[in-house]
Amino acid sequence: MSPSDTSFNRSRRRLGQALGAGAALTAMSGCATQRAFFGGRPAAKVLVVGGGFGGATAASYLKRWGGDSVDVTLVERNRRFVSCPMSNLVIGGSRRIEDLSFGYQGLAARGVNLIYEEAVEIDPVGRKARLQTGLSVQYDQLILSPGVDFLFDEVAGFDRKAQDSVLHAWKAGPQTVALRAQLESMPDGGTFVMSIPKAPYRCPPGPYERVCQVASYFKAAKPRAKIIVLDGNPDIISKKALFLAAWNGPYKGMIDYRANALVTELDAGTRTVTTELGDRVRGDVLNVIPPQRAGDLAKSLGLLNANGRWAQVDWMSMRSTAVSDIHVLGDATFGAPAMPKSGHMANQHGKLAAAAIIAQLNGSSPVIPVMANTCYSFVDDRSAIHVASVHQWVPDKKTLEPVAGAGGLSSAASELEGQYAFAWSRNIWDDMLS
Fold it and tell me: What are the tens digits of pLDDT across the range 346-397?
């Protein structure tokens, strides 16, 4: 695709307009803060639990918009953020995990208090959090960005011992590196078996991008190797035609895709998985992505009021509809119509929660939300595809809905889109961590 591709440029212009609306929200919130918070009032204590795309963004923008009027504390178990978006490139071999890993010093420089611990209990009545070391942190407002946890028990045999060798690599970090090492150790002519859970799960196109990355590596290093994809869904659920163009093009004959093939059992010893229809499939490397739900902390707080798996929120503020005065962000939420679980979407959630808290503290009207999402997927080490969408508030339905005609989908994979993808990643990492 060339830079003059009119449909692509039109999509980018529409997306830019949506992001421009976010910039207006930034300016408006900042001005409101300066009018309201020079009266000597004590700073409001805002606790953010979880330093991913949602939580880190919320902490950053609370300080950007609230300044000294808010005392922001971020509790995060890890000292370094590791990005899930782009992590499939580590599995494909064109990037290192270090390329996707960043410290939180930028947030500290902005004035965010950092506590590198795990929050194990929240008292919403007493408004305090207890950390793993026993430390207690008081707050006036709470933002919870717990990510996802895995329902291993829905796959028989996926016990703790099996988890040592059968990897999901669906949280970027050590398992990402370990899965890459398993592929490198696999014999040429061997089989890589990957299973995809039923939607919703974190990053809808992520599994299909991973198939492309593994195929790209095999094509270069193990040309006789095969890939079997066991998809628990009726079909490819994101960017179908674009992924199929890669699978039936440069990777033709390498990928055996099977829809409606939900994995319900595994045997780590024999490296065999069984689907709900009773089909047994053996591989040299198994990559089983389990079903998911909102993180454990959200579950312990009783926030999972959507199918017992996800947290429903008020889309004007990101507040939980199950427990008052807790804002929930990111993949843990039950998405609005056509809203994906993605890093970009979590970033937008963080900004909306920050704006809602600042507006509440100011006694001003909440900002009417408009959110944008962009998701890139690499089909090899340089060429990418994208899907983009814009979501706006619909008052009579009290939710966000996609804007017809906004956003867009790639016409084909290209290196130009790969350049855009790398730029997107650099920009969003800087946005959330500074």
Answer: 999 999 999 999 999 999 998 899 999 999 999 999 999 999 999 999 999 9
- b/e map of 315-335 (b: 16 or more CB within 10 Å)? bbbbbbebbeebbbbbbbbbb
Closest of 75, 60, 65, 76 to residue 111, by C-alpha:
60
Q: Which residue has the tokens 């704006």?
A: 355
The fold for domain 20-149+293-366 equals: FAD/NAD(P)-binding domain (3.50.50)
Report helix, strand or coil for 356. helix
Helix (H, G, I), strand (E, B) or coil at 59: helix
Alpha-carbon distances of 3 from 212, 388, 415, 420, rounded to whole Å: 24, 17, 11, 11
E strand or H helix at 26, and its extent?
Answer: helix 6-36
H helix or E strand, kind and range, residue 49: strand 44-49
Strand partners, 46: 72, 141
Distance CA 298, CA 221 (A): 43
pLDDT digits (tens, 9 = 90+) for 242-297: 999 999 999 999 999 999 999 999 999 999 999 999 999 999 999 999 999 999 99
Copy the structure tokens of residue 249. Answer: 């093009």
Is there a common fold for 20-149+293-366 and 152-290? yes
Reported pTM? 0.91
CA separation for the pair 359, 377 (Å, rounded):
36
Q: Where are the domains of the chain?
A: 20-149+293-366, 152-290
| The architecture CATH gives domain 152-290 | 3-Layer(bba) Sandwich (3.50)
Assigned token pair, 243:
């992924």
CA distance to 70, 217, 264, 294, per residue, from 37 (Å) = 10, 55, 55, 35
Report the distance separating Cα 414 and Cα 396, nearest Å.
41
Sequence-ordered alpha helix ranges (H) in 301-414: 343-362
Classify residue 374 by burial, with Cβ atoms within 10 Å: 0-12, 13-18, 19+.
buried
> How far apart, in whole angstroms, are the C-alpha atoms of residue 137 and residue 128?
5
Q: What span, in angstroms and rounded, lies between the C-alpha atoms of 58 and 48? A: 8
